[in-house]
Amino acid sequence: MPTLLRRLLCLLPVLVVAACARAPGETTLRPRIDYEKYRLPNGLEVILAEDRRLPLVTVNLWYHVGPANEKAGRTGFAHLFEHMMFQGSKNVPEDGHLQLLEGAGATDLNGSTSFDRTNYYETLPSNQLELALWLESDRMGFLLEKLDAAKLANQRDVVRNERRQSIEGAPYGLVEEALYHELYPAGHPYHARIIGSHADIEAAQLDDVRDFFRQYYAPNNASIAIVGDIDKARTKALIAKYFGPLRAGPAVERTTVATPRLTSEQRVTVTDRVELPRVYVAWHSPAYYAPGDADADVLSHVLGGSKSSRLYRKLVYEKQIAQDVSASQQSMQLGSIFSIEATARPGVKAEDLLAAIDSELRTLRDEGPDATEVDEARNTIVADIVRGLETFGGVADMLNRYNHFLGEPGYLTQDVQRYEAVKPRTVKALADSLLRSDARVVVFGVPGEKVVDDPPRTTPAEGAAPEVAPTPAPAATPADWRASVPGPGPSSPLELPVPQQFTLGNGLTVLLVESHKLPVISANLMVLAGSDHNPTERPGLASFAAAMLDEGTRTRDSLQIARDAGRLGATLAAASTTDYSTVALRTLTPTADDAFALMADVALHPSFKAEEIERQRVSRLTQLQQQRDNPAAMAQRVFNAEVFGEQHPYGYTELGTPESVQQISREDLEGFWRHGFTPRNAALIVAGDIDADALRALAEKHFGDWEGDRPAAAELAAPAIGQRRIVIVDRGPSPQTALRLGTVGVARSTPDYAALEVMNGILGGLFSSRINMNLRERNGYTYGARSGFGYRRGAGPFVIQTSVRADVTAPAVREIFKEIDGLRSTPVEDAELTLSKDSFTRSLPGLFETTADAAGSVGQLFVYGLPLDYYNGLPEQVAAVTAADVQRVMRERVDPERLVVVAVGDKTALEPALRSLDLGPVESRTAE
């Protein structure tokens, strides 16, 4: 066994218990999750795992149903039904599910659908566990009693907007959909994308929903995993109370479908409104957890899992014919998909890119991978598994996933062992049998017309009586107590981690949050030099300089940095924001010393070699070109420019402009780094499995010789705030319009931070906010809308963002202004105020759920000069916010007469409709 894996597994404590002792003759270790599983008489499987490091709990409910169970002509129905489950039930009012969870302080709540299952989850304060169980059991047992045609029609609209946004409006979305159509014949459960087609979504009827619920949404077709700060005895009693009375549904047979073998290459070309060609190559591969599935995971990493992978090295780094390349094993129950995806550089044909891919595949089949490649891949995969255990939701999802596919929640031991068993010869054998040109699908996505099949929304015939659902048979014996929302249990005083702090002799600040639950460490080296330090004529400089850090040092080239990170099972990334630049490290305790050495080398000794600069320059220019593919990216770019202007650093995205990227020199890059990257201008923020003494030793060893003084802070002029206007960016015929509405906001130092956050939660910050409820739930205009302040050292933006169905752009803008005016003119009600305040305060523990979360949260204290115990004092500030404060900050900071409206879509259709709103001048911009 590789040394890293052996050392790692012997360190997994408490939740993940490693039995390092082995029976005679055994060569594998046995890490395991400490859990308990049992079954209720109605068939519901219950999985419990205690973890008391934070006062949080995750409730994760899996239903064994997905597109694999859909009927012909009803593609996307499982996903549509996922949406229906949030529409209220007998004892939960419409839109009440998410409102109650947000008010309880949930930090992670949603549902998701994959081909083989649907799940619903929430992570919330542990004293609110009973609320989550009440909500989940009420919709499992009593959904049909409140389900009607109006709710179905609304969610059809929402899902179709989701499709427009995520597939038809997204670059290459339709191209990827074609891949599934070619891999699987019509009628196969995996033939369509999970979201389904417009026609099938629109065809869904109320009777379909009722039948689907009765068949699949029953306790005997579900499992619930509860992980976190729980008392098992009390939790079992609550589960018996809420789920025990629910009746079992009809038996559900697992879907078994024979997938026809590919006996020849299937090649198609799909045109899309994209700048660059993209190549997809895919094969049928071993099913989830079947023999060969782990080998396919490793093979995907060897081919396209990192910068050190074969395809990246050859296509992106050496030949420079690809902008990006990746490989993946999409593991599924009825058979998986092994795929390669590569985007061509400008001027490169899709056919030439495929030829280069095939050349690398032939080499791999002929020679196989070497042991180093397999070890790097295995280390990365196992480290990802361990890091996934940091979140309560990650553990709950793992338990449910193992249970769903294998019937054994404790499969972690065997899961790790199957990767131990992967060897270079087994990967070569799989590549020989799998990666054949006569058993694959090739899809070329090329620039051209986007062909969208988007039939109109159906409306009831004039005069037709509304469809009324018959009273369903109850799924459980009625009980009066279910009508009452459970109150929270006893809560402990909120005590969030306060970081330890010390300073090295060279002035480097070091902040630490200890967490010894898992052998995981997250470290962020944060430097107070971001895009706010960019010269006016060099937008994008900070981002370019940060990107160069891991492109080579004095002793390592770009590929060696990636290989070293892979060898350690670590991730390393460098980036910039408006206020700072950062090098972020995620590593495991056994490799901390080597990982910190790598991090320090990247941050302190970048080489800025000419050839690496030119590679990065071409990549960045191509990224800017690709922004024209993405309406949301275009809207944000234009919004920044319109609100802040070209003389302000905030007027640009981090990438800058094509002109500036062309002009940035090696001297510019090295000068930015030398000026800003100094120990007195930086902090090393660390969270995880390390104590202060060990961290001090590591920091001294790897950063103690760093020299330099703190430079002067950036001086930012206050941007001029203009009058309201509408700016249209013409993109031709579009299924949706990308919208941005906003103005200059406030700096992070504002004394009104708490009041602004409470106000924004009401306006557009929460799912249950006014703008989202209006546009999504009441009108079906969008998949989602949100608002927020971009807090920075200078006054950042306030922005409302959404994408709406193209034909309702003007009504959507009108409704947004209506909600703004309403919050400015009418005092907020107590219930709304309480919901927003509670959501803010009760969700604070989520800021420290993972080591990466903790490092990021503590980093904000350093960047904005906040006290170390800031988060513990924040609830008091929030509690003091009044309805009058909300209205005051709304009036002061969100002036509708100063909002800029940016709309990216079809100018021909948009201009007359937006002019009719009479909101001010209507101007036009091109995509450039």
Helices and strands, with pairings:
Elements: H1 3-9, E1 16-19, E2 30-33, E3 36-39, E4 45-50, E5 56-63, H2 77-84, H3 96-103, E6 108-113, E7 118-125, H4 129-142, H5 149-168, H6 173-183, H7 198-203, H8 206-216, E8 222-228, H9 232-243, E9 266-272, E10 278-285, H10 293-304, H11 310-318, E11 322-330, E12 336-344, H12 350-367, H13 371-388, H14 392-406, H15 412-420, H16 424-434, E13 441-447, E14 500-503, E15 509-514, E16 520-527, H17 541-549, H18 558-568, E17 571-576, E18 581-588, H19 592-604, H20 610-626, H21 631-644, H22 658-663, H23 666-676, E19 682-688, H24 692-703, E20 725-730, E21 736-744, H25 753-765, H26 770-778, E22 782-789, E23 797-805, H27 809-825, H28 830-842, H29 851-863, H30 870-879, H31 883-893, E24 900-905, H32 907-915, E25 922-925
Parallel strand pairs: 4-8, 9-13, 15-19, 20-24, 20-25
Antiparallel strand pairs: 1-2, 3-4, 5-7, 5-8, 6-7, 10-12, 10-13, 11-12, 14-15, 16-18, 16-19, 17-18, 21-23, 21-24, 22-23
Descriptive account of the structure:
The chain is an alpha+beta fold and 928 residues long. It folds into 5 domains: 31 residues, no CATH class; 217 residues, Cytochrome Bc1 Complex, Chain A, domain 1 (2-Layer Sandwich); 171 residues, Cytochrome Bc1 Complex, Chain A, domain 1, CATH 3.30.830; 204 residues, Metalloenzyme, LuxS/M16 peptidase-like (Cytochrome Bc1 Complex, Chain A, domain 1, 2-Layer Sandwich), CATH 3.30.830; 201 residues, Cytochrome Bc1 Complex, Chain A, domain 1 (2-Layer Sandwich), CATH 3.30.830. The chain is 41% helix and 18% strand. It has 32 helices and 25 strands. The strands form 5 sheets. Strands 3-4-8-5-7-6 form a 6-stranded mixed sheet, with helices on both faces. A 6-stranded mixed sheet has the order 14-15-19-16-18-17, with helices on both faces. β22 and β23 form a beta hairpin. α3 crosses α28, α10 packs across α13 and α27 crosses α31. The longest helix is centred in the first third of the chain and has 20 residues. The chain is globular, with a radius of gyration of 28 Å. The chain starts with a helix and ends with a strand. About 3% of the residues have low confidence.
